[in-house]
Request: fold
Amino acid sequence: MASVRYECETFYHRVSQPQPTPETHHPPPYFVQIELTVTLDLVVFRHDCVIGFYTNSDIGPIFMLETIRFNLDLLKDRYQAYQILVATLCRLRLNPICLAFNSFVDEIIEFGLRIRNETSNMQPQVLHLRSEFWGSILSM
Reply:
């Protein structure tokens, strides 16, 4: 059985905290929680060996989204935070063997810890965090 091989051309990652939007949680959380939304947005190109050009692939763009919620204090235990975040990124088909994979997880944890330091006396609520991955891959 033949398989298609992909090569990463460009790949970017950004962690941010979107502007809060008022929302009602039923029931309200007992602790400060993080709701992490991870998006993966890739454009797939194909190299046409006959004409020597790169063209858009028949596959089209790839977009995936995963949202998880956890208590903010979970980030204090780096091992447990890694377990949850690695599982989330793997569901988006990101390769945990990739050299940059650990740095992606570290960025998310560090951003969350900064939020935790800023919100030490905060009432229980849900804080939103966004982790975005985007780039292009080449279909071989």
